[in-house]
Amino acid sequence: MARGAEPPDGGWGWMVVLSAFFQSALVFGVLRSFGVFFVEFVAAFEEQAARVSWIASIGIAVQQFGSPVGSALSTKFGPRPVVMTGGILAALGMLLASFATSLTHLYLSIGLLSGSGWALTFAPTLACLSRYFFRRRSLATGLALTGVGLSSFAFAPLFQWLLNHYAWRGALLLVSALSLHLVACGALLRPLSLTEDPAMGGPKTQLASLLHHGPFLRYTVALTLINTGYFVPYVHLVAHLQDLDWDPLPAAFLLSVAAISDLVGRVASGWLGDAIPGPVSRLLMFWTTLTGVSLILFPIAQAPTALVVLAIAYGFTSGALTPVAFSILPELVGTGRIYCGLGLVQMVESIGGLLGAPLSGYLRDVTGNYTTSFVVAGAFLIAGSGVLLTLPGFFSCVSPPTSRPQDFINEALDTKVPLPREGVGEN
Amino acid sequence: MLGFLREKLGKADSSEEPVEKNITLERPSHVELICQFTKPVDLNSVNVFWEKNGEVLENNSISNATGNVLYAQYKFTVINSNQMGSYSCFFGEKKKHRGTFTLKVPEIKGKNKPIITYVGDTVILVCKCQHCSPISWTWYHRNGSVQVPVDIQTNDKFYMINRTYSNETKLKIVQLSEKDQGLYACHAVYQLGESEMLIELVVLSYLVPLKPFLAIVAEVIVLVSAILLCEMYTHKKKCHSDGGKEFEQIEQLKSDDSSNGIENNAPRHRINSVTSK
Fold first, then answer.
1. SS3 of A10, please?
2. Does the structure show a pLDDT above 60 at B74?
């Protein structure tokens, strides 16, 4: 364990990538594949689909809203104990859910308890990953986030198989055991102390300095707008396809195709983000705009081939924007403040996530089809990418200079005088 | 009051493929079956047979031929299930051209997936049919080859729930036990017959998912312990060799008479590269 070192860019960092891979699989893969359980819950509790889908919404909301708590605790205690506790909470939530007798039980156990568990795992792990890598940060993040895509691929059939053999109670029990692996992922997160850590202060100081950081705030706004439109296809694509008279099997196949291209997009974009010089925010804007455009084109496409092409395009671009979105943050706020920064971003963008799907559902109810909701989602994405134009260094042709801790301390103290920067290394 | 049904089969070409039609019938009705075929070239006279299930029927039929179209009509009344079945009209000497009407009561459609429940649970089995209104529904429990009616009246365990729309029936079973497993058949009873659907019910005990659960939990505990122990071990080894490194170097210098700088440095570098991870 090195003291006051620079990011290793390898070594144990790859184990952290592995941990982040499994961990994003176990958090978001589970969340995304939960749709398989919904049919069972609707039948078992005789409730409407809208009420059942609140389970996942609450889970996502708690995960994102609780991220600052996870981040603050990680700054204080290091990521390892926090993530391990989160894993236990997430598994406990699923375990209690298997004994549920009403929908409210599920809201509390899966939504609140597992959601808090996930809040304590996701943001700290990704932040820890950012601290372990510098030159290959985007690639590492992209590789880690492929866990989400691969797992939604594997977990949906797995959950269906579990439901067919054990019914939903037994299946939840086994998903709880699966989620317990988050504790093992947490064990892999060896603490790393970097040069700028002592200068950054405790969690409260960091949070305060972040809230005064202009570019960080603008970035948060951009991500919130992006988040509002981002989840819409996942929630409504199947329903939209059924409106177009698609059978369930080809519709599921289309989702799988989109998931594969999402996967490829993540890795490709991660590699690209490190390979191309210049601020990463440009890449994010590029991918976000393309995603928005593909969403707007969705209602226009009627022929199956056009829909398949659009699904591939949407999958690729939306996957591509995720690693970039995460790797901008260290550039903006520095690896010292990354835990708190990531936590805050997750919390604010959750507002977008909470609003996006219900808004889109409301538009569907009002207009009778999904055209307006897709267009509005695409518009949100493009608006978000527009805000990205305001980030510092967007229009420069040079790589951003190596962020020195001194700069961030001066920003926090509101000094307007830029310090001479020693050009050490490059991206 | 009897209903009325008229069904027509037509064939435009003179191919020998049989033409078929499935007809669903619920209530007793007057039925007219009409076959209208294009007359094949080799047919001079009109010779129409009507058959049911292989037996030739008496002539309740009308037939004529105008131009090159053969027309045959068969009228009868369906009162009970004896009149249901397959009716065929035949043209030609060797009965080469044929049309078949199959009269059936409405079928019950459903999923074939078994329903999985646990001991002590409550389950509701549902049978639904479209565009139908049976007189009544009955449920049977099939154990092996024996089919037993489900005891709804006296046994508190079974409730049959029929809504106002009679095209649906539900069987509610409470306090499930393992001997409630097996196939359940719902029968839709019509004046003209019955149709049934099978539903498989599986009752598991809680031990069934519990065993894999405990196995996975044990595996996670082993994994976490392994990771933490491994880290503590490499940490201890590094601290040990950090302190022992200087000692070894001093030993090397002392033991070598002809001190070749490279030879002395080599072990030291190797130790360095091992511990710097």
1. coil
2. yes
